[in-house]
Design a protein that fits this description.
By secondary structure, the protein is mostly helical. It is built from 13 helices and no strands.
């Protein structure tokens, strides 16, 4: 009789293994879920959706300008029309004082105006956020000095300071961006400081300090993520102001004369006497473009602000 010896324990049913996601995967999932919630709430604001669609149209026009009108539209020597011709089938928006197609100039000018507005707003918000977070975190004499400097910039006329900087520096797009960025940050700094003080009063900040978290860790890992929604909303609101400021500086003759922008077109129209001559087609298109993009950014900014801070109760 043959017996079968057992060499080990009788196998049982396999225990299912639970896959645990890595911290990075969980962080990505949380960000995707947060973005989905944000977009779901943003879509309920009709004005914000309209502003976003308008911005998409402006961005599409600016990005495709080299393909639709080409850089030759800026040429004075190869102008296709006569000086200040009225709108026609060949020139839907008429021509400028050099005979250039105004429709092409407005399309090409969108590139410069949007670029200057975006970069100036980013610079302004970056300065304001840096000063606001550091002043709210360190407090003491440092916060006092920073807030007094902020108050000085806040009470001074922004346009006057920008004009002064643009006058003493070289006439270029970099000068315009710098002049707008370093004069429009105080409002952001005060808002971010107030939010930083609120965040630093929460219990988990005390626990992080008790566990040995340094200043950089507290500001970058705890304070900055909590103030970022405010910074995002403030950026969208400042962009419209920056575009208007660029148009004003260009209209005053302080912009770069070698590039075409909406404000520069208004300056050219003023120098050509379009106002007194009744050449409305020289003034209206760039003016409408400036007003349209400023309104679009404002609508988007209000909608973002309402989504990120529902207590504001902004109208939909």
């Amino acid at each position: 009789m043959t017996t079968t010896e057992s060499n080990g324990p009788v196998p049982t049913e396999a225990t299912p293994q639970v896959a645990t996601a890595s911290p990075r995967t969980l962080a990505r999932q949380r960000r995707r879920a947060s973005a989905a919630r944000f977009w779901k709430q943003y879509r309920t604001h009709r004005a914000g959706v309209f502003g976003l669609a308008a911005l998409g149209l402006f961005a599409l026009v600016a990005l495709t300008a080299p393909l639709t009108v080409g850089s030759d539209v800026q040429s004075v020597t190869n102008a296709p029309g006569g000086p200040m011709e009225s709108p026609s089938a060949e020139f839907p928006l008429g021509t400028d004082q050099f005979g250039r197609d105004l429709l092409g100039l407005v399309v090409w000018g969108a590139r410069v105006s949007l670029l200057v507005g975006l970069l100036a707003a980013v610079l302004s918000v970056a300065i304001g956020a840096l000063i606001g977070i550091t002043a709210g975190h360190f407090r003491g004499w440092f916060a006092t000095v920073m807030m007094r400097i902020t108050d000085w910039f806040l009470v001074m006329p922004t346009l006057v300071l920008a004009i002064a900087l643009a006058t003493v520096m070289s006439r270029s797009l970099g000068t315009i961006i710098l002049a707008i960025g370093v004069t429009t940050w105080p409002t952001t700094a005060r808002l971010v400081r107030a939010q930083t003080l609120a965040v630093e009063s929460r219990p988990y900040i005390e626990r992080a300090k008790a566990l040995g978290g340094g200043h950089w860790h507290i500001m970058s890992r705890h304070v900055l993520p909590n103030v970022m929604p405010l910074v995002l909303a403030q950026t969208t609101l400042i962009i419209s102001s920056a575009i208007l400021a660029e148009a004003t500086l260009a209209f005053l003759g302080l912009g770069d004369p070698t590039v075409v922008s909406w404000g520069g077109l208004l300056q050219d129209a003023r120098e050509a006497g379009a106002v007194s001559a009744g050449k409305w087609w020289y003034l209206v298109p760039p003016g409408i473009a400036i007003a349209g993009v400023a309104l679009a950014f404002t609508l988007c900014g209000r909608a973002v602000e309402s989504v990120l801070n529902p207590k504001l109760g902004a109208a939909r």
